[in-house]
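Saturday, quiet lab. Running sequence design on the structure tokens for the scaffold JK sent over.
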């Protein structure tokens, strides 16, 4: 059996890994938004500003969905680790 101190260390590590995953998602969002902005500047793409705004909204919705999944996973794993 793990000591309480070790369990707390593992929970801390789980939270750190979750935060790293969220940072990765945010970086992907930043890159996707850059591509969307580039589409609006590209004259051959014929993409309107409204379409770019809708695309960015979709990107944000996807990010929030995956961030909530990560949060749920962190919470579930933390609870599992702290159980005796």
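Result came back. Writing it out in full:
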């Amino acid at each position: 059996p793990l000591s309480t101190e070790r369990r707390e260390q593992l929970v801390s590590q789980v939270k750190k890994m979750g935060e790293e995953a969220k940072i990765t998602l945010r970086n992907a969002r930043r890159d996707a938004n850059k591509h969307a902005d580039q589409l609006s500047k590209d004259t051959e793409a014929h993409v309107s500003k409204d379409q770019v705004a809708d695309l960015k909204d979709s990107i944000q919705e996807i990010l929030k969905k995956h961030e909530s999944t990560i949060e749920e996973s962190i919470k579930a794993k933390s609870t599992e680790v702290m159980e005796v």
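Notes for JK: The radius of gyration is 19 Å. The chain has a mean pLDDT of 94. Ask whether to fix the surface positions before the next round.
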